[in-house]
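re: the backbone from monday

yeah here it is again, tokenized this time
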């Protein structure tokens, strides 16, 4: 029987404003880090006679969501990077994410990444979480094995 643990996850965002650690030890919430592809890789078209045609799509775009505890010091680092990068188009959309699981060998690399928006910010009875969403131009993933 194999075991998964977020302890084995390392993640970083590297860009024009520096490197920010986003993996284990960054005060991630239970949701952790989620990679979502923007579109299907295939479209199946069924002809009038029942024959099928598959269309392979080249797109590799998607989103990366990093959810942190409200008290995570990483929120400040990301906020500073967001503010700095939003000052110039030459700084915008130039981040690279690398997410690894050392136990399984999973690796995700995302290029041409930009902050989607300033995260929602709530002050409530409980601290809650802060979700940072990034649009990624090209995502490559290789899932390993436990």
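seq for it, each position gets an aa:
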């Amino acid at each position: 029987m194999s075991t998964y643990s977020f302890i084995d996850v390392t993640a970083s965002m590297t860009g024009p404003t520096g490197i920010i650690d986003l993996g284990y030890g960054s005060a991630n919430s239970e949701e952790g880090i989620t990679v979502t592809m923007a579109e299907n890789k295939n479209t199946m078209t069924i002809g009038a006679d029942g024959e099928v045609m598959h269309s392979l799509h080249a797109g590799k775009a998607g989103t990366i969501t990093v959810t942190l505890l409200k008290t995570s010091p990483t929120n400040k680092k990301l906020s500073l990077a967001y503010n700095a990068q939003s000052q110039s188009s030459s700084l915008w959309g130039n981040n690279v994410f690398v997410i690894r699981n050392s136990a399984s060998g999973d690796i995700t690399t995302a290029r041409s990444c930009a902050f989607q928006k300033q995260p929602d910010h709530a002050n409530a009875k409980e601290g809650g979480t802060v979700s940072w969403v990034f649009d990624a131009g090209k995502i490559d993933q290789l899932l390993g094995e436990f």
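The longest strand covers residues 129-142. The CA atoms of residues 3 and 146 lie 7 Å apart.
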